[in-house]
Amino acid sequence: MHDPNANQPLKRFLTPFSGKAVQPPPVWLMRQAGRYLPEYRKIRSEAGTFLDLCYSPKLAAEVTLQPIRRYGFDAAILFSDILVVPDALGQNVRFAEGEGPRLEPIKSVDDLRRLTLSNTHYKFAKVCETVALLARELPRETALIGFCGAPWTVATYMAEGRGSTDQAAARSWAYRDRQGFSQLIDLLTEASIVYLSNQVEAGANALQIFDSWAGSLADDEFERWVIAPTARIVTEIRRRHPKVPIIGFPRGAAASLQKYIDGTNVDGVSCDTACPLSVMQAIAKTGKVVQGNLDPLLLVAGGDALDARAGAICEAMAGLPFVFNLGHGIVPETPPENVARLVQRVREKGN
Ligand code: 1CP
């Protein structure tokens, strides 16, 4: 008998990237591994520092698998962090308990001299050991997403020395000394190409480039520091690995989304919570995959409001190449049972 699913890839997450809709849509959530899960907190408290956890393949693989076991997401995202790249390049990076990342700030080209691509080998290899373990251990139907931070977003942390609300240190450096700042961006671009290629070679099925602070730049600066380096990463990865889908997440840049897609040639975009559903529909109708965009705080609130919005997103995107996700990462206050409720809702509603 003819099986209508015979030509579907085994991993449902990958189907929208061939331009086809899947019903119900594949679902995974940014930061699906993390502090909202008690089993994560247990391993985190036993693992030493946060970066120790990122460089311990067995433990990092285990925390990647935890949300897959609980919820059966269609994709797992490698457990690591975007700040592994500056750490591997040689910048001093640490995660202060309850305060977020702290880095010894890079202020000028002189400070850049301490960072080199040849430093990265050992630490990138540790992360890729995690990828290889996951490629073996994940269920066959679950895709594995590798990732990096986009050069602009990683540079904001490197220049500021910590997370910031306005990315002032990086924006000012870029205005003051365009050439010097572009050396930092170029270094990060090259490191990201190596890092992502290594992840694919170790077994990642798709890649996501997190540009969490893309929304803080003026138009021309956005082209220079967000679009151009991302385009170069996409070109280089595609040349080496033409079949691996690449998703961009230019958070806060809904108004420039089409320009981002045209300029970078990514296979899909992750949309933040503020992105209108009409914009997501228009992009998906061009054949690009759209991912998004439930408010993570609605996942904390739960209840009927959660069901209603999840349903509305699924309805708006039905029949289009779409992956259900949040508009940003899960927050630690999220009740784990609300995540179960959401996955159930997407799978019922999207059917
Ligand atoms: O102690 C802890 O457990 C720290 C919490 C934590 C976790 C769970 C951090 C510190 N990073 C992570 C994991 C992480 N970070 C993943 C793993 C996979 C998953 O999603 O499950 C990913 C993809 C990231 C990406 C990341 N790190 C981004 C991009 C996405 C986003 O949230 O915007 C950014 C900006 C970071 C930096 C970072 N790392 C950690 C924190 C608290 C932050 C944000 C700092 C800030 O507020 O600016």
TrEMBL record:
Pathway: Porphyrin-containing compound metabolism; protoporphyrin-IX biosynthesis; coproporphyrinogen-III from 5-aminolevulinate: step 4/4
Uroporphyrinogen decarboxylase (URO-D) domain location: 26-35, 145-161
InterPro entries linked: UROD/MetE-like_sf (IPR038071), Uroporphyrinogen_deCO2ase_HemE (IPR006361), Uroporphyrinogen_deCOase (IPR000257)
UniProtKB keywords: Cytoplasm, Decarboxylase, Lyase, Porphyrin biosynthesis
Coiled coil region boundaries: none
Site (Transition state stabilizer): D81
Cell location: Cytoplasm
GO molecular function, one term: uroporphyrinogen decarboxylase activity
Chain sites annotated for binding substrate: R31, Q32, A33, G34, R35, D81, Y157, S212, H328
Major subcellular site: cytoplasm
One Pfam family linked to the record: URO-D
EC number: 4.1.1.37
GO cellular component, one term: cytosol
Catalytic reaction annotation: uroporphyrinogen III + 4 H(+) = coproporphyrinogen III + 4 CO2
GO annotation terms (biological process): protoporphyrinogen IX biosynthetic process from glutamate
Gene3D superfamilies reported for this sequence: 3.20.20.210
Superkingdom field: Bacteria
Subunit structure: Homodimer.
The protein's role, per its UniProt record: Catalyzes the decarboxylation of four acetate groups of uroporphyrinogen-III to yield coproporphyrinogen-III.
HAMAP family: URO_D (MF_00218)
Protein family: Belongs to the uroporphyrinogen decarboxylase family.
Protein name: Uroporphyrinogen decarboxylase
Record organism: Hyphomicrobium facile
